[in-house]
Amino acid sequence: MKVFKDLGWFFRQEKSSYIFGVVMLILVALMELIPPQIIGRVIDGITMETLTPRGLAIFIGILLAAAVLTYIFRYYWRILIFGASNRLGRILRERMYNKFSYMSPYFYQERRTGDLMAHATNDIRAVQMTAGAGILTIADSIITGGAVLITMAITISPELTLIAMIPLPFMVVLTSYYGTLLNRGFRKAQAAFSELNDKSQESIAGIKVTKTFGYEKSDQEDFKALSDDVVEKNLKVSKVDALFDPTIMLVIGASYFLSIIFGAQMVLSDEITLGQLITFTTYLGMMVWPLLALGWFFNLVQRGRASYERIEEIMQTENDIGQEYMIEDAPDGDIEFNIGAFNFPGNGETALRDVSFEINKGYTVGIVGRTGSGKSALIRLLLREFDTNNPEDITYGGAALRDYNIGNLRAQFGYVPQDHFLFSTTIRDNIAFADPDLDDEVIHEAARLANIHEDILGFPDGYDTVVGERGVSLSGGQKQRISIARALITDPEVLILDDSLSAVDAQTEVTILENISRVRHGKTNIITAHRMSAVSKADQIIVMDRGTIVERGTHNELLARGGWYHDTYSQQALRQSLTEELDDLVKGDEGDE
Ligand SMILES: Nc1ncnc2c1ncn2[C@@H]1O[C@H](COP(=O)(O)OP(=O)(O)OP(=O)(O)O)[C@@H](O)[C@H]1O
Question: Where located (predicted)?
Answer without folding.
Answer: Cell membrane
